[in-house]
Write a structure and sequence with these properties.
Blueprint lengths: L2 H24 L6 H8 L3 H7 L3 H14 L2 H8 L6 H16 L1 H7 L5 H20 L5 H5 L3 H21 L6 H13 L10
Helix pairs in contact: 1-2, 4-8, 5-6, 6-11, 8-10
């Protein structure tokens, strides 16, 4: 990687850190490009070299949150048989929501249709890629085309997240993943947790 690319990555990272700090402390409604730039110590012009707007920025934050631990989890679960593999992947995804629950709640139920559409599209692509790479096998188990299975699972995950956030449900991520497992496989989830 060139020095130029390393510098761009550092700058993007500084924006992301600053924005996430503001989002966690103040919520989406109080997030502004000016606040992000002030905290990151860069000008607005530089911000727009990396992000189209506030909404694009927040989508990138959501992607970062979900991707932070995905590779490590994928490596851990690859040796597990399906459907245990899927269960532990869902636990990881729901733990991400749990870890940043206040942030996700600040977005939930608001009039941000474009933002939520972009999150849905990101989630669908993420799941479809995992199926295509063979990381998860429920498409094979159900003998359905990958796009159909990806759409179904992405919708189910979004439904579980919506339920979890809108009801102030105090269940841990493992229980939410367990409910999803039961809905899809009609079985109780595995009892041993992967650490």
């Amino acid at each position: 990687m060139s020095e130029y690319q390393r510098k761009r990555n550092r700058t993007r990272h500084l924006f992301m850190e600053a924005g996430l700090t503001i989002l966690l402390e103040q919520g989406y409604d109080k997030l502004t490009v000016t606040k992000i730039c002030d905290l990151a110590d860069y000008g607005r012009g530089t911000f727009y070299e990396y992000f189209n707007d506030k909404e694009d920025f927040v989508v990138r934050i959501i992607e970062l949150l979900f991707e932070q631990h995905t590779d490590a989890i994928n490596q851990k679960v690859m040796n597990l048989p399906s459907p245990q593999r899927e269960y532990f992947g869902w636990i990881n995804a729901f733990r991400t929501v749990e870890r940043y629950k206040d942030f996700f709640k600040s977005l939930h139920g608001r009039d941000y249709p474009s933002l939520m559409e972009r999150f849905s599209q990101y989630n669908l692509i993420r799941i479809q890629n995992q199926l295509e790479q063979g990381i998860y096998a429920y498409g094979d188990l159900m003998q359905l085309p990958i796009p159909v299975m990806a759409s179904f699972v992405a919708s189910a995950m979004e439904g579980m997240i919506t339920y979890w956030l809108s009801t102030d449900c105090d269940l841990p991520a493992e229980d939410i993943a367990g409910m999803m497992f039961k809905m899809l496989y009609h079985l109780d989830p595995p009892t041993e947790l992967l650490e």
